[in-house]
Amino acid sequence: MKALQYQRYGGPDQLREVEVPRPTPAPGQILVKVAASSVNPIDWKLHNGSFRFVKPVKMPSTPGFDIAGEIVQVGADVTQHHAGDLIYAMLDSKTGGADAEYAVVGEAAAAPMPAGIKWQEAAGIPLAGLTALQALRDKGQLTAGQRVLVVGASGGVGHYAVQIARALGAHVTGVCSTDNVDMVKGLGATEVIDYKKQSGFGSETHYDVVFDTIGASRFGDYTPAMTQDTVYVCTLPNLSLIAHALVLPVYSKRRIKMVMVNSSGEDLKYLTNLVEQNKLRTVIDRVFPLEELHLAHELNQQGRTAGKIIVNVGNRDNPA
Hints:
It is a single chain. The protein has helices at residues 41-47, 119-123, 126-139, 156-167, 181-186, 219-222, 239-251, 265-276, 293-301, and strands at 2-6, 15-19, 29-39, 66-74, 86-90, 102-106, 110-112, 147-151, 171-176, 191-194, 207-212, 226-234, 255-258, 284-289, 308-312. The chain is α/β, with parallel strands linked by helices. It has 2 domains: 2-125 and 282-312, Quinone Oxidoreductase, Chain A, domain 1, CATH 3.90.180.10; 128-258, 3-Layer(aba) Sandwich (Rossmann fold), CATH 3.40.50. The strands form 3 sheets. Strands 3, 4, 5, 6, 7, 14 and 15 form a 7-stranded mixed beta sheet that branches. Strands 10-9-8-11-12-13 form a 6-stranded parallel beta sheet. Helix 3 packs across helix 4. The longest helix is centred in the middle third of the chain and has 14 residues, at 126-139. The radius of gyration is 19 Å and the shape is globular.
């Protein structure tokens, strides 16, 4: 089968198109013919060596965690899925494997694809959508009527977070650049802060949850806009923030929590329900063919995309 692989640690120039054996599903796994994937920062960060001492990658390595496609084979003990089913999933491997014609994933990590959407739309959801859901619902414990600030509201994780928070009944304020203000409002944000025109996050509005998908500001920059027991959730912890999280409970009711996304078919079913109720959609910035994965990674590295970067893998017609 065709796959795109990093040959060694480095930038997208290390990606090569190769022919590799088609994987075989182990017990509890399913084999999927991949129609589309998407790009997340973890894809290229794993392969440029950013996490090599924490999560080493054996080279050559096929990147990508998001898949949408059709099951072609199931392993022993698989009961929830069958050959011919259309599914989407965040791969439960440590380093990816989505940017190939076929991929294997654990049965519990996959879910039926939402009805009425395209491969590309479904492929954008898993990793970023699960991150947003688990950050807001589980870490932030966001509930109806609360106020939430989503920093990076037009990005891959952020644009799903705005919609999920709105579906949970929260009052949503998004932070983004001038070019994306209308998009974020269209996703359900009640208010939008244009960081190019406004410095800081204000002191008149106090947020119950702050979800920071960017990590460019210090925790202290948000405190004027926090309640006494605000939960700050981030996707990009650093040593300073981790240290702050440990000492904060000594003198404050505020909390710092880090979200490390988990593959979950059950959580994908939750997101499917939102999609089918027209409460969640994928904004697509660009679509690349598999052969141009290096360009997709280069674009993602710029950090200026609105929504998701999608990779067409199988060149298949969209589901009817």
